[in-house]
């Protein structure tokens, strides 16, 4: 049974944009979409009567209307809607266990101020079992996703070993489904006295220098994915500099940026590259966990 694309909504424009992006991705990958609006009653410290049943009904209407709008916009979409009686983070993390990806909305103010990541998004990003895609709405006031740039998926590659393969798997699957090219980016820096290794430097010398060695490593890591997805054009970029800066510069023409996150049991943590990309990229960002 195919795993669904799961979109979390909360009644905001950002949530609607995320749902629409998720619907389009589900159709292109021929996957079902599950729309989730978690709701649990929590008492508020307000001097007013709190009608929990009315709140529950309002949450149900929100979910029903969002699902109806998606079905009208995408009539071929296989869609189910869920309203789990749990806090949003708990519900979304549980749903990520059997999801192809989890799609959430985020507010943003443009390239200088970046995204506004709420507490729910940050907690889910750091702990979700599936890849998480953060989407923000267009700046024209609509609830559609912000329009992508040129048709390429920019993927930042810090880990070129087998443990980093989930990042490439997600990036190539998205590129193939959407007719986009892969722009693989790897940043490098001169070794410091603390991580200098004679063996590593010997390998770099044999390859013609550190940069040539990095290019060779990237090309080797991408070879099996080129063979698996021969229809996907691949562009390689190896550049000296800070990883976040190099990746963000490359992302100016991207429709999606894909970054990795190390999986640490019991800890929800985003590295500095993922954090910077989430706040400043001008397109949707996918965070993929790996060992």
From TrEMBL:
Location of the UspA domain: 1-136, 153-288
Signal peptide annotation: none
Top-level taxon of the source organism: Bacteria
InterPro entries reported for this sequence: Rossmann-like_a/b/a_fold, Universal_stress_UspA, UspA
Pfam families: Usp
UniProt record similarity statement: Belongs to the universal stress protein A family.
Name of the featured protein: Universal stress protein
């Amino acid at each position: 049974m195919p795993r669904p694309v799961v979109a979390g909504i909360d009644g905001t424009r950002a949530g609607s944009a995320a749902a629409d992006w998720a619907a389009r991705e589900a159709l292109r990958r021929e996957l079902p979409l599950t729309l989730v609006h978690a709701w649990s009653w929590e008492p508020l410290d307000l001097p007013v009567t709190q009608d929990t049943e009315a709140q529950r009904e309002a949450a149900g209407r929100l979910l029903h209307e969002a699902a109806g709008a998606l079905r009208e916009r995408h009539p071929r979409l296989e869609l189910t809607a869920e309203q789990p009686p749990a806090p949003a983070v708990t519900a979304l993390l549980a749903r990520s266990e059997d999801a192809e990806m989890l799609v959430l909305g985020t507010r943003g103010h443009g390239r200088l101020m970046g995204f506004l990541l709420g507490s729910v998004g940050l907690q889910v990003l750091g702990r979700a079992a599936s890849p998480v895609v953060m989407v923000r709405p267009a700046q024209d006031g609509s609830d559609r996703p912000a329009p992508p740039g040129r048709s390429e998926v920019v993927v930042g590659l810090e880990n070129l070993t087998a443990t980093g393969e989930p990042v490439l798997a997600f990036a190539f699957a998205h590129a193939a489904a959407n007719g986009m090219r892969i722009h693989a980016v790897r940043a490098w820096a001169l070794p410091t006295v603390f991580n200098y290794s004679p063996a590593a430097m010997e390998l770099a010398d044999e390859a013609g220098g550190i940069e040539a060695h990095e290019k060779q490593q990237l090309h080797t890591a991408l070879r099996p994915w080129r063979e698996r997805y021969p229809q996907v054009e691949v562009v390689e970029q190896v550049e000296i500099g800070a990883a976040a800066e190099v990746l963000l510069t490359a992302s100016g023409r991207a429709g999606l940026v894909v970054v990795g996150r190390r999986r640490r049991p019991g800890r929800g943590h985003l590295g500095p590259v993922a954090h910077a990309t989430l706040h400043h990229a001008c397109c949707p960002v996918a965070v993929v966990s790996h060992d």
